[in-house]
Every structure is written in structure tokens, then in C-alpha cells.
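To assess whether ligand presence alters the predicted conformation, the chain was also submitted together with manganese (II) ion. Input:
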Amino acid sequence: MLILVTNDDGIHAPGVAALAESLAPLGQVVIVAPDRDRSAIGHALTLHAPLRADELTPGVFAVDGTPTDCVNLGIHGLLPATPDLVVAGINRGANLGDDITYSGTVSAAMEATLMGVPALAVSLGGETYTASEYSNAGGAALFLARKTLQDGLPVDTFLNVNVPSGRIRGMRLTRQGRRRYADMVVEKLDPRGRKYYWLGGGECDFEYLDGTDCHALHEGFISVTPLHLDLTNFQSFECLSLWNADYPVG
Ligand code: MN
């Protein structure tokens, strides 16, 4: 088996090394990861600048681009063949609810899925990030990677996996939860008296609804959310289809 490992925390983050080590029993693991922290870069793709890949040690590439760039470069350039699996992580911090659209970790798994390669995004949530917690998350990644390689995933679907820190009570299949938005923008003055703004400064919380990713993690369970590439809200067709009929033609 050939496995591509990437992340959005950057090549020097402890999570990517822990993930590669955990997946080593499955076959050959190649790391292609951003050369610096690119968290919250979303699904950005570098189209108007060259990309460089620096092979730090054999099979470990640092790229001056985004996680999505890394998946592209890995699959179409750096790896000896198309990988059997792409795993992104282990992210430092959970990727839950609405936040997944900002996540470079989740976007990397999405990009692999777009290319027809099964993929997992793995994040570690909680207050602490010890070596043993990364190793626990790596164990969950190995378990799910094995299942994915054996059984495959449903079409156009990838897994967003969040592992709690501390004792793990089990694994739950979950749906995407909801973020509770607070004061997200902090306004301050710089030393020259000009205003500046800092995003994400507010309290971070979720609605802990039954069956959601945030609820499972909060309860000490590994959360596994199957995500689909198709974001269409099919339930809305019934009410929105009437709009078309009102469009003035002629
Ligand atoms: Mn990150």
C-alpha cells in the first residue's frame, strides 16, 4: 500500500510525524506537507505562483504551498504512483461543525476525494497535546485507514475524524454540528494610533446537539463524520423550485 500523509499545521508539527509513524504498518508512507503552518487556509489552490518541494529526508517533502497544493503535487508529481489512501493530520485542534469549511486538514481530504483517492482528515481535540494523545489519535487513524483500505468508502465521501484528548470511550458515527458564534472581531489600536482587527477573538463554543461531532467529542468519543463532496441541499428543492417559475421570460 502507498499512503500520502499531509496536514495544515506544517511539516514540523508533531501531528504529521505521529500520523506517518502510526500508518507505517500499512505500507509505504510519503509525507507531503506545507513548509509552515497553513491552518484555516481552507481549500485554497496556488495557481499564480510556482511551487517548490524540498525533500528533507527520503519520502518527506516540504512544499511552499497549501494542503490542497500538497495533495495535488503528491498525487501528480512526487509520489511514485497514485496512493491507495490520503490521510491529513493529525491536526492540533478539533475540526468540528461549521469550522470544517475553513480547515486545511479537511480540505486536503476533500481534494484527494475529488481525485478519486479515498481520504481521511484526523484531528486531535482538547486542552492538551501530549505525545501519548497524538499516539492515541494515530491509533484511531490506523484503525479507520485499515477499514477504508479493506471496505472502501461510499462514492464521493470522505471521513472527518476527531479524537478527544484523555481517555477514549469509543467511536461514534456523527453528523456535522453547529458553531455558536460570539464576538469574533477584536478591534484595537496599533502603536501609531491606527485601528487594526483580529478575527476569531471571541469565545469558541458549539451547540451540543445529540448525534453531532461536537457532542461526541465532548462526551469523550472519537467522532467519525462522513462528508460528501456534493453540498446541494436537496430538501430545499421543493420550496425553491417555485422561484424559477416566477422568473420573467421573454
Ligand atoms: Mn491546523
